[in-house]
């Protein structure tokens, strides 16, 4: 079964030439569905079958200096958009904004990849994790959002890598399965991704989890050999 693998390049690479070079090294017809999310400013210049954005503004248009409209993303052929990443939440992104972003993306036929996650340290208690995720999901999916069209990425904040080649520990398979099942059964979500230090070494094990439909990959997506292995992982 094909999985969905989303590459979150974050603020990398720093130049258009490097971004083009990196995209050029990624397998264009991999075993799984691969989505590249380069920095917004490079989106129009990167050639890859499926592109995603790392963020969008929640208003359609108007006097909002520096923001990126959903219409602009659509005009560039963007098919997916990450929202609610923990690195944006710490910069002040609110639940209300996240909800608005999901709404406007769905109205425009772009699939939102909603990131939810807990804690800067490993939580001892799964119930504590579930509680926080519950709050994030309730807020983001309120207001009649069609949940079947939203992809949710579970990203424990403590598991996010420090960059390419610097993965941290990942949660146990049991924990990932339990959380993914909770997201699906409680919220009617069809697709749950795991994110946090996914690499070519652990991809097979994580992707083999019954309720995991793919990966959100940060650091390892900047390493073409690693990422090509991930998107071609046999399960
Ligand atoms: C992320 O930040 O979305 C992510 C998955 O990062 P990493 O793979 O580097 O842990």
Structure description:
By secondary structure, the protein is α/β, with parallel strands linked by helices. Helix content is 32%, strand content 15%. Strands 2-1-8-7-6-5-4-3 form an 8-stranded parallel beta sheet. Helix 5 packs parallel to helix 6. The longest helix has 15 residues. The chain is globular, with a radius of gyration of 17 Å. The site of phosphoenolpyruvate has 13 residues, from strand 8.
Key traits:
binds phosphoenolpyruvate; 235 residues; alpha/beta
List the helices and strands and how they pair.
Layout (H helix, E strand, L loop, with lengths): L3 E5 L7 H9 L8 E5 L14 E2 L16 H6 L4 E4 L2 H4 L5 H13 L3 E6 L9 H15 L10 E4 L18 H15 L3 E5 L7 H5 L6 E4 L6 H8 L4
Parallel strand pairs: 1-2, 1-8, 3-4, 4-5, 5-6, 6-7, 7-8
What is the count of helical runs?
A: 8
Q: Which ligands appear in the coordinates?
A: phosphoenolpyruvate
Record the strand order, biggest sheet.
2-1-8-7-6-5-4-3
pLDDT averaged residue by residue: 96
Structural class designation: alpha/beta
Low-pLDDT segments, ≥5 res: none
Oligomer: single chain
For the termini, the CA-CA separation is: 8 Å
Q: Number of DSSP strands?
A: 8
Short summary:
The protein is an alpha/beta fold. The chain has helices spanning about 15-25, 70-75, 85-90, 95-105, 125-140, 175-185, 205, 225-230; strands spanning about 5-10, 35, 50-55, 80-85, 110-115, 150-155, 190-195, 215.
């Amino acid at each position: 079964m094909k999985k969905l693998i989303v590459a979150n390049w974050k603020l990398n690479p720093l130049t258009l030439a490097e971004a083009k070079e990196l995209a050029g090294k990624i397998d264009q017809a991999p075993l799984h569905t691969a989505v590249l999310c380069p920095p917004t400013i490079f989106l129009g210049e990167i050639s890859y079958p499926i592109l995603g954005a790392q963020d969008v503004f929640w208003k359609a248009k108007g006097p909002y200096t520096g923001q990126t409209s959903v219409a602009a993303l659509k005009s560039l052929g963007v098919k997916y958009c990450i929202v609610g990443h923990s690195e944006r939440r710490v910069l002040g992104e609110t639940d209300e904004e996240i909800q608005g972003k999901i709404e406007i993306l769905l109205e425009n036929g772009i699939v939102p990849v909603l990131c939810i996650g807990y804690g800067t340290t490993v939580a001892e208690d799964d119930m504590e994790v579930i509680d926080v995720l519950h709050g994030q999901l309730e807020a983001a999916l309120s207001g009649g959002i069609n949940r079947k069209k939203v992809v949710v990425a579970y990203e424990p904040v403590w598991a996010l890598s420090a960059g390419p080649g610097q993965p941290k520990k990942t949660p146990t398979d049991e924990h990932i399965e339990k959380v993914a099942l909770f997201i699906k059964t409680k919220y009617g979500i069809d697709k749950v991704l795991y994110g946090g230090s996914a690499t070519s070494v652990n991809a097979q094990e994580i992707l083999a989890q019954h309720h995991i439909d793919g990966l959100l990959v940060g650091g390892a997506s900047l390493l073409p050999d690693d990422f090509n292995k991930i998107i071609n992982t046999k399960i």
